[in-house]
Design brief:
The chain is α+β, with helices and mostly antiparallel strands. It folds into two domains: 89 residues, no CATH class; 40 residues, no CATH class. Helices cover 58% and strands 15% of the residues. It is built from four helices and four strands, in the order ααααββββ. The protein has a two-stranded antiparallel ribbon. Strands 3-4 form a two-stranded antiparallel sheet. Strand 3 and strand 4 form a beta hairpin. Helix 2 runs antiparallel to helix 3. It is elongated. The chain starts with a helix and ends with a strand. Bound molecules: zinc ion. The site of zinc ion (ZN) has 8 residues, from loops. Zinc ion binds next to loops.
Length: 130
């Protein structure tokens, strides 16, 4: 394993962007099992090539900047996805309302009948059925 350590010394290594590229390539590979498009195969190969190029790159600063750009784009999407997963998971036990004042999501336990719901952010009150 020492040769690998030596080889990777001063090289950038794996980051979220490389992981993302590999994940997308795997998804495209699976998709292409059905579509069998040569263009998609080239694209997948290109993505894998780019992710390996980035891992072995010695231009650490540039790779870091690329990853930061990627995270600026990806993190809000990821947060939204996580929020939706959280909502879906608690849909059986809770009901969600949108505050008419500030548009914030408010979670209320189900089965409590008619309620006056007060928004914890803007203090607006409204009626809802849970
Ligand atoms: Zn509000």
């Amino acid at each position: 394993m020492n040769w690998l350590k030596k080889f990777m010394y001063g090289r950038y290594g794996v980051d979220q962007l490389s992981n993302g590229l590999i994940l997308v390539s795997i998804l495209l590979l699976i998709l292409n099992l059905f579509l069998k498009l040569p263009a998609l195969r080239y694209l997948t190969t290109l993505l894998i090539f780019i992710s390996y190029y980035r891992m072995f790159s010695k231009n650490i600063n540039k790779r870091y900047q690329e990853n930061m750009k990627f995270l600026n784009w990806w993190n809000p999407i990821k947060a939204k996805l996580n929020k939706n997963v959280y909502k879906l998971k608690s849909l059986k036990t809770h009901k969600f309302f949108k505050c008419p004042g500030c548009n914030r999501d408010i979670r209320v336990p189900r089965g409590k009948g008619r309620l006056i719901i007060r928004c914890p952010k803007c203090n607006e009150s409204f009626e809802g059925r849970s």
